[in-house]
Design goal:
Chain A: It is found in: Chromosome, Telomere; Cytoplasm; Nucleus. The complex is a heterodimer. Chain A has 15 helices and 3 strands. By secondary structure, chain A is mainly alpha-helical. Chain B is mainly α. Classes of the chains: A mainly alpha, B mainly alpha.
């Protein structure tokens, strides 16, 4: 190696020397494999031939530069080609037991003979780094082969494990073309098996759910946590109840109306042709709100034509049934024009009525 | 509702501290639990004085909730976050709080609060209960089934000598229909899942291999993996898939055995939660 240094010292720029040491160093790194030894041996005599050319170059450096420009360009081109090839065939070189790495090294060595300037030498160095990386990988391969683990077999075994043995013969990409369900069941089965080998803590979720998690991880989570504390008791429940109320209200109204209609008709059957005092019917002496509700429901009954309200001789409102017989009469007079009545009742009014009419109990009983 | 992250409290707090009817949640910190609504940090922080058991208990409860929720994403919980969001000026009793919280987590949930790496000041929750076959059905919907994929990758890594290249992983996964660039039915973006999500959750380590062109990366086990599972377990998983005995791979089996022995030896710090003293 010292020889190489000396012979190139002639007209060489200082930059070359470190390059030489890199080359030397890379060579020693490959001592493990047999082939590089040959390379080193070959480098010896070649270096000597350089000796002669260097001597000549000493005479006329400027002329040398001009002449070699073409040559250098072609050397660089060849180096680049070599590097490219090796990179492309990297997998091939590393995984198979071919001699391609050795051949590439020998080719580089031949090229190096003609190298006299930094640029090409740098390319040579680049190539050697690449080659030594590949060499390292090949060595690693040697190790792992001993443990007898075959990835491809692992893959096939996974499929068998899940129960998809008929997929084996499809060659590569077995799972990519098939049914979604099969893919899902494959991963679920693997998941099930995998989780039994890990001590994963289950993720914690509130039963009634939490607010939709926003994309960023931390701050919104905090707010979500606070909100959950405060509103989890209060927030969720009221909205749910409200929803229920709305939907049930619709039916509840109709049900109530029907129920009250039933009560009314029962009364009319018991006492035929006796109209009932409106106030006596609707008023609940114990609850003002129920009274208002009753008025509400009775108004539906009247609207639907199951009962009639009119003023009697005392100018007090009474409810009268509408029989099928009456329907004819009633329709003639009242169907052409809709009549509207508005009843307003204040708390005081209600109390007065209860007192005046001496209403002791509600005619419309509660359904519950 | 106060938007400052300092104001924390929960429904229990309100009733307890008798500030029901207030809109802002009262914080459990503040002198003697008295009305310091909104936990305004702009004012001078109250002098930490002797704290009642009740206050400490409250803090521990909050800490437990915080840890449980933070663990949802499986990203390690940082000590600074704990200080910032929960503990506040109870900093001086942080080790005590952590100890109690860890105790609570272990007794009530069966989860261990472990420091990811010594002196890393990040924590994770690890299950203490061995998974039972029957539970697999009962386990609710825990999101996408990524553990299967993770276990396969971990198995690959271990069987190939504790480190593999990313390209090898993809060569393997391609055969199972998982491509780095194609959208997957279950996993969405598998490349992101493996090289980012799992790494963030500290299941895997993802490093660039120097001097490669085109750039290549290598994958190794992350610290969380060592806490949640072991080489022996992964080997057994692989063996089960092959329907063989783990001893059929002597090199890996020896390695796994060595690790088991190392764990069994009572080590300094071992696996107990050792919260570092608050600085």
């Amino acid at each position: 190696m010292a020889e190489e240094k000396d012979c190139l010292r002639g007209d060489v720029e200082k930059g070359e020397e470190p390059v030489v040491t890199i080359t030397g160093g890379a060579c020693s790194g490959k001592q493990a494999a047999e082939e590089p030894m040959k390379v080193e041996a070959e480098a010896g005599p070649d270096a000597c031939s350089d000796d002669l050319s260097c001597g000549e170059a000493d005479i006329d450096p400027s002329l040398l530069e001009l002449v070699d420009e073409e040559k250098c360009r072609s050397i660089r081109k060849q180096y680049r080609q070599l590097i490219y090839n090796v990179q492309q065939n990297r997998d091939d070189i590393v995984n198979t037991t071919s001699e391609s790495l050795t051949e590439a090294l020998e080719e580089a060595n031949v090229l190096f003979d003609a190298v006299s300037r930094t640029r090409e030498a740098a390319l040579d160095a680049q190539f050697l780094v690449l080659a030594s990386d590949l060499g390292k990988e090949k060595a690693k391969q040697l190790n792992s082969d001993m443990s007898l683990f075959n990835q491809v077999a692992f893959c096939d075994f996974l499929l068998i494990f899940v129960g998809l043995n008929w997929m084996e013969d499809d060659g590569r990409d077995a799972l990519s073309d098939c049914d979604d369900n099969i893919v899902r069941s494959f991963w679920e089965t693997v998941q099930k098996e995998a989780t039994s080998w890990m001590l994963q803590a289950e993720t914690f979720h509130f039963i009634f759910g939490s607010f939709k998690s926003e994309p960023s991880a931390r701050k919104p989570r905090l707010e979500h946590r606070k909100r959950v504390h405060r509103m989890e008791e209060n927030g969720d429940m009221p909205t749910k109840l409200r929803k229920l109320d709305l939907s049930s209200n619709q039916e509840a109204t109709e049900k109530e109306v029907e129920r009250i209609l039933g009560l009314l008709q029962t009364y009319f059957q018991k006492y035929p042709d006796t109209p009932v005092s409106y106030f006596e019917f609707v008023i609940d002496p114990n609850s003002f709100s129920r009274t208002v509700e009753n008025i509400f429901y009775v108004s539906f009954i009247i609207r639907d034509g199951f009962a009639r309200i009119r003023l009697d001789h005392d100018r007090l409102p009474i409810l009268e049934p509408i029989n099928i017989n009456h329907v004819g009469e009633g329709n003639d007079s009242s169907s052409h024009c809709r009549k509207q009545g508005v009843i307003s009742l204040s708390l005081q009014d209600w109390k007065n009525i209860v007192a005046t009419f001496e209403i002791s109990e509600a005619m419309i009983t509660n359904s519950y | 509702m106060s938007q400052k992250p300092k104001s924390r409290g929960h429904a229990g707090t309100q009733a307890e501290l008798g500030s029901g009817g207030e809109e802002a949640p009262s914080t459990s910190r503040g002198p003697g639990g008295a009305a310091s609504q909104g936990g305004r940090r702009a004012e001078a922080p109250p002098a930490p004085g002797p704290r009642s058991q009740k206050q400490l208990e409250l803090k521990v409860a909050e800490l437990v909730q915080f840890l449980l929720i933070k663990d949802q994403r499986k990203i390690p919980i940082r000590r600074t976050d704990i200080l910032r969001h929960v503990v506040g000026d109870y900093k001086d009793v942080l080790p005590e709080l952590l100890r109690r919280a860890a105790e609570r987590l272990e007794y009530v949930f069966g989860y261990r609060l472990v420091e990811l790496e010594p002196r890393s000041n990040t924590y994770i929750l690890v299950n203490t209960l061995e998974p039972v076959e029957e539970d697999a059905e009962m386990r609710g919907d825990q999101g996408t089934p990524t553990t299967g994929l993770l276990m396969i990758v971990l198995g690959l890594i271990f069987m190939k000598g504790n480190s593999i290249k990313e390209t090898e992983v993809w060569d393997f996964l391609r055969r199972l229909g998982v491509h780095p660039t194609k959208k997957h039915l279950i996993f969405g973006d598998p490349k992101k899942l493996i090289t980012e999500d799992f790494v963030r959750q500290r299941y895997l380590e993802y490093r660039r291999i120097p001097h490669t062109d085109p750039v290549d990366y290598e994958l190794q086990w992350g610290p969380r993996t060592n806490l949640e599972t072991s080489k022996m377990k992964v080997l057994k998983f692989v063996a089960k898939v092959h329907n063989q005995d783990p001893r059929d791979w002597p090199a890996q089996y020896c390695e796994a055995l060595a690790e088991e022995e190392a764990r069994a030896r009572p080590q300094t710090g071992g696996t107990a939660p050792t919260p570092a003293p608050s600085s």
